[in-house]
Amino acid sequence: MNPILPVILSGGAGTRLWPLSRPEQPKQFHRLVDAHTLLQATALRVADAELFSPPLIIANERHAAAVEAQLAEADTTFASLILEPMGRNTAPAIALAALAARPDDLLLVLPSDHVIRDVPAFHAAVRTAAALANEGWLVTFGIRPDRPETGYGYIKRGAALRPDAFAAERFVEKPDLETAEAYLADGGYDWNGGIFMMRAGRYLEELAAQAPDVLEPARSAMAKAARAGNRIVPNAEAFAAARSQSIDYAVMEGAERVAVVPVAMGWSDVGSWDALLDLAERDENDVARHGDVLAIDSARCLVRSDGPAVVTVGVSDLIVVATEDAVLILPRGQSQRVREAVEALAARDSGQ
Amino acid sequence: MNPILPVILSGGAGTRLWPLSRPEQPKQFHRLVDAHTLLQATALRVADAELFSPPLIIANERHAAAVEAQLAEADTTFASLILEPMGRNTAPAIALAALAARPDDLLLVLPSDHVIRDVPAFHAAVRTAAALANEGWLVTFGIRPDRPETGYGYIKRGAALRPDAFAAERFVEKPDLETAEAYLADGGYDWNGGIFMMRAGRYLEELAAQAPDVLEPARSAMAKAARAGNRIVPNAEAFAAARSQSIDYAVMEGAERVAVVPVAMGWSDVGSWDALLDLAERDENDVARHGDVLAIDSARCLVRSDGPAVVTVGVSDLIVVATEDAVLILPRGQSQRVREAVEALAARDSGQ
C-alpha cells in the first residue's frame, strides 16, 4: 500500500456563520464544537502516524501565520503549507498538492471546516478508500443522508465493488426537496461531502485529459514556486491563469472508475448556526452556550460570544452570535437568513 | 417674583437601563430619545433666561468632567457645579443647593434623567409653581397618571388653591395594582415625579425643624467646601455624616403648606427599556433603532447599539441593547427583568 497523504483544504471563506466567520477569520479557524478549531480537529484526525503521512495544507497566502499558529497550538505537524496567491476553487488547489506529492502517494482530500464525530468510522472508511485508490479508483466518501437535504450534491451508488464500497453511477446536483426526499427513500444515494481519495498521479492524468487549463497553470506555478522552510508559494501570475473549478466538475463527474465509500461518521459541514445548534453541547434548557454568556430562563437557543458579555432573559428559540464588532440575532430554524444580514450590511457599507 | 434657580440632580446611578447605564455612565449621560443626552435636555429645558437663572448642577464628584463636557457640548451654561463626595440621596443634595443659593431664590428641583416632551406645558406649570413658592408653599409637580402604575408614589389633591393648583392632602407610597387602579379611577391622585419648587430659605427651615441630621452636616460641608472656578466640592468628612434620605421622606411628607401643581407634559422617567420603546421614534415596523443597527423583517422591537453592529432578522417583540462590552436580549414587556441579568452577572463576577 502506498502512503496516505492527507491534503487539508483551508481555502474556504464563506459567510454562512457570519458574524463569526469573516474573510480574515474563516470558519475553520474557530472553536465551534469543542476546544479545538475545525482546522485543528481536522489535522488531529489524521495525526495517526501508522495510517497517515504528515499532511499537506493548502491555504490562502494571507492565512499563513494563522494556519501555522493553529497547528502549533494543537501540537500537530505538517509536511508542507502550500499558500495559494488567490483562490481558484478545489480542482487547482488539489493540483498543487498532487504536484507536491509523489505520484504514488494516496491523496486524502479533506475540507478543513467539517466536523467528524466518529473518528474510528472515518479511519475505517479511509482504509477501504485507500485499497480502492491504490488500485487506481477515484474514491469519494459518501455521507449517509439522515434528512432530505437540498444543500448538498448526491452520489448514486452503482455496482458493489466490495461489501463497503460501490462504483459511483453518477453525481447529481443539489436537488429540489421532492427529489431529495425520493433519494432518501431510495436509500441508494449518498451526500457528496467533498472528501476524496486517489493516487496523485491518477489525479494529474485526469486533469491532463479533462482540464488542462487547470493542470498547466498549476504545474507552471509550482515549477516557479517560492519555497521557505516548509512554506511553498506557487507563482502568482501562473496560478492566476488556472480555471477556477471544483474537483467535482473538473474531474469526478467526467471520470471513469469513480467509487463511493458510504460512511456514517457523525459528519457535518456546520453549514449554518442551526446546524451548530444541532451539534453543540446543550444545557438542561437546550441552550448551547459559548463564551461570556448568561442564559437566564431561556430555552432552545444558541447563545455565543467571542466578544461582549451576552445576557438573555426569558427568550426561546433564538440564535444570538456576538463578536467584538457585530451581533446577529435571528430565530432558530431561520439561520439561512444570515445571507440577508450580510447582504444588507454590504449594501449599506457600499453606500447603496 | 424672586428668581427661579433650577437645581439639576445628576446623582442617580440606577441599573434599570443596564447595560447602557453603568456607575460611570449613568442614564442621564446617554442619548436615549433624541440627539441630546437626558442631562443636556434637562439643562436646555431651563435655558430660557427670561424665566430661569443659570442652574446649579449637583453631581457625584467622579462625574465632574462628564457633566462639564456634556453641558459644554450642548452650549448651555450653569452657575455652579456642586460635586458630592458621596451619594446621600436627595434631601442632603438639595440642602447643598439651598445653602449655595440666596434664601429668596426659588429652587426648581429637577431630576436630570427624565424626559419632558411638552416644554410649554412644563414652563406654564413652573410659573404656577413659582407663584405659590413665592408665597411660601412647598410645591410638588403632580404628573397626571395615564395608567395604574405601581412603580411611583402618588400625591392626593386637597383643596384647590387656584384653578391649576391644589393643597397636597397626602403623599402615598408606591401602591399595589388594585390601589393604583382606584387612584386612577378617582382622578384626584397624581404621580410624584420628583420635581419640586420652594424658596431656598423655606427648605432650610423645614430641614432645621424636621431633619437637622441632614441640614447640619450639609451646612458644615458647604462651610468647608473647596471651590475652584464654578466647581464646589463640599467637605467629604462633614457630608458623610448626613443622613441619607429623600426629600419626600425628610421634608415633604411631614411639612405644612405643601401644594401640588398637576401637569400633563409628556413626562417619563424612562424607567425601563419598555418605557423607552414607548417613547422612542419608531420605523414603519414599530422598531425603535439607535446606533449601528439593521432590523431586517423585524417588528415591535427596541434595537439599540452603542458599540457593535447589531443585525436582527425575522424577530419580533424583542429588546436588544448592545454596548462595547455587553449585550442584553429580552422580550418586550419584560424589561423589569434587567434586574435578574444584573444580579446574575454580579453573583457570577463575585465568584458565587
Largest interface, and how many residues on either side?
A-B, 34 and 34 residues
Which CATH architecture of the largest domain in chain A is right?
Answer: Alpha-Beta Complex
Q: Indicate the CATH topology of the largest domain in chain A.
A: Spore Coat Polysaccharide Biosynthesis Protein SpsA, Chain A
Q: What is the CA-atom radius of gyration of chain A, in angstroms?
A: 21 Å
Instruction: Find the structural class of chain A using helix and strand composition.
Output: alpha/beta
**For the report, how would you describe the main beta sheet of chain A?**
5 strands, mixed, barrel
Q: Can you identify the CATH superfamily of the largest domain in chain A? A: Spore Coat Polysaccharide Biosynthesis Protein SpsA, Chain A
Oligomer: homodimer
The largest beta-sheet of chain A arranges its strands as 6-9-7-8-12
Q: Could you give the distance between the termini of chain A?
A: 58 Å
CATH class of the largest domain in chain A: Alpha Beta
Shape of chain A: globular
Instruction: Summarize the amount of helix of chain A as a percent range.
Output: 25-40%
Mean pLDDT across every amino acid position of chain A: 95
How many beta-strand runs of chain A? 19
Number of domains of chain A: 2
Number of helices of chain A: 11
Q: Element order, helices and strands of chain A?
A: EHEHEHEEHEEEHEHHEEHHEEHEEEEEEH
Uncertain stretches of chain A: none
What does this 3D model show about the protein?
The structure is a homodimer of 352-residue chains. With 352 residues, chain A is an alpha/beta fold. Chain A folds into two domains: 4-268, Alpha-Beta Complex (Spore Coat Polysaccharide Biosynthesis Protein SpsA, Chain A); 273-349, no CATH class. Helices cover 30% and strands 28% of the residues of chain A. Chain A has eleven helices and 19 strands. A five-stranded mixed β-barrel of chain A has the order 6-9-7-8-12. In chain A, strand 2 (56-60), helix 2 and strand 3 form a beta-alpha-beta unit. In chain A, helix 3 crosses helix 6 and helix 3 packs across helix 7. The longest helix of chain A has 16 residues, at 119-134. Chain A is globular, with a radius of gyration of 21 Å. The N and C termini of chain A lie far apart (58 Å). The mean pLDDT of chain A is 95.
